[in-house]
Amino acid sequence: MEREINLIVVHCSATKADRDITAKDMDSYHRVCGLSSWGYHYYVRKNGAIERMRDEGDAGVHVCGHNRDSIGVCYEGGLDANGRPADTRTVLQKRSLLALLRSLRADYPSAVIKGHRDVVADVKGNGRVDRWERSEECPCFDATEEYGDL
User: Fold this and answer.
1) Which residue, 75, 78, 66, is CA-closest to 112?
2) Residue 2 maps to a domain
3) Considering the domain boundaries, does residue 1 fall inside one?
4) What is the 3-state secondary structure (H, E, C) of 108-137?
5) Are 67 and 61 in contact (CB under 8 A)?
6) To pair with 62 at 20 to 30 A between CA atoms, which of 10, 26, 74, 99?
7) Cα separation of 130 and 59, whole Å?
8) SS3 79
9) In which element (H, E) is residue 26 found?
10) d(CA 100, CA 95)
11) Count of domains forming the chain
């Protein structure tokens, strides 16, 4: 049975930009956290390589309340050398992310692209997630705005 995909969620690995973190490293981390395998569907390396992780037909484990109807895309990085949130995407990552998200939107035309930070509770109830309502900055850039025209 095919899943209905309404959301494509962009994440960062929340790792320092000067570190190399592979999809296998992410899998190990997710297993330490109690998952049976990696939670994302795709992982985009700093060199632009796109690694397939979880099958799109399987629900991910990447965003509370939306795993059943979403695809999770994670890019390597998201923290500066001091461990602070920053847009650390390389030119190659940006190109690969754009190509991957275009492809996913073609496959799931009704899906909305959002950053993980924008898929949390709207505490104020004003129809948007304000900065103070976020529990984290992932993916460390405004994915909703950047990919809103796809």
Assistant:
1) 66
2) no
3) no
4) CCCCEEEEHHHCCCCCCCCCCCCHHHCCCC
5) yes
6) 99
7) 27
8) strand
9) helix 23-32
10) 9
11) 1
In a domain, 11, yes or no: yes
Considering only CA atoms, which of 142, 139, 6 is closest in space to residue 73? 139
Quickly list DSSP for 34-72: T-SS---SEEE-TTS-EEE-S-TTS--SSSTT-STTEEE
Residue 31 placed within a domain? yes
CA distance 14 to 144: 18
Identity of residue 109: P
Q: 109 preceded by cis ω (within 30°)?
A: no
- Asked if pLDDT for residue 27 goes beyond 90, the answer is no
Q: State pTM to two decimals.
A: 0.84
Tell me which residue of 29, 25, 23, 28 sits closest to 41, measured CA to CA: 23
User: Does 34 or 68 have the greater pLDDT score?
Assistant: 68
**Residues belonging to the chain:** 150
At 106, which CATH number? 3.40.80.10
d(CA 35, CA 85): 25
Q: Residues 121, 91: contact at Cβ < 8 Å?
A: no
**Domain span at residue 123?**
7-146
